[in-house]
Amino acid sequence: MNDERLSAWSQSAAKRIFDCGCVLISLPVLLPVLLVVGAAVRLTSRGPVLFIQRRVGRFGKTFPILKFRTMAHHNTQRAKNAVTTADNQRFTLVGPFLRRWKIDELPQLFNVLLGDMSLVGPRPKLPEHCDEMPRFACRPGITGAATVAFAREEKFLADVPKEMLNTYYHSVVLPAKLQLDIDYMAQATFASDFNLLLSSVLRRWDNSIWKTISYGNKTALRKDVKSSKEPVKSPEFVYQTIRPEPSNFAR
To answer: Does residue 197 sit in helix, strand or coil?
Structure first.
């Protein structure tokens, strides 16, 4: 995404000040929570408290994203390159709870302070998912339009046959996420960012996009995906024929 596709708010210093201000104000309240969660992760499973993974950020620069570890330590290396679903992971004792309530994402508040991320923006992708996708000229976010729309992604992906999971994810899900983020960041405002933050905190997820791209609801699309040997990485692959309604959060 070039700068001309970003709204004035998306590339403003005011957005950065807002991000840092929110994090600094919330830290006194959240620090005890972070300490308790960290202790729970450490006491209920072997391995480090944090899961650290390289992600692609602003202008294609990679950075280490921070999360509370939710999977068994010997599975984390393998999980770095896997498409995750609700039934293909070995969670720690507290992992499902942390994932369900998005508590595992809280350490990314420090990514925001370090300047790697924003509170609201496109979700940072794995490097292997970005080879043929446009690079964003804005900071990736802890939450965003695609994050809210795909908050239950693992549950829906569990319905996709295992042999089709990787191709389906790259051909359909990733392009859908990308287009949602592009559309949102082109018209984002302070009000829309605040609305997304509030929706994320209150868990007001928007699952309507799955009615459009659900694996079981698109016989023709499923046939196209099955016949493809390589992932189709163009965002237009999905949106030329099944473009969803614009997100309410971007209005």
So the answer is: helix
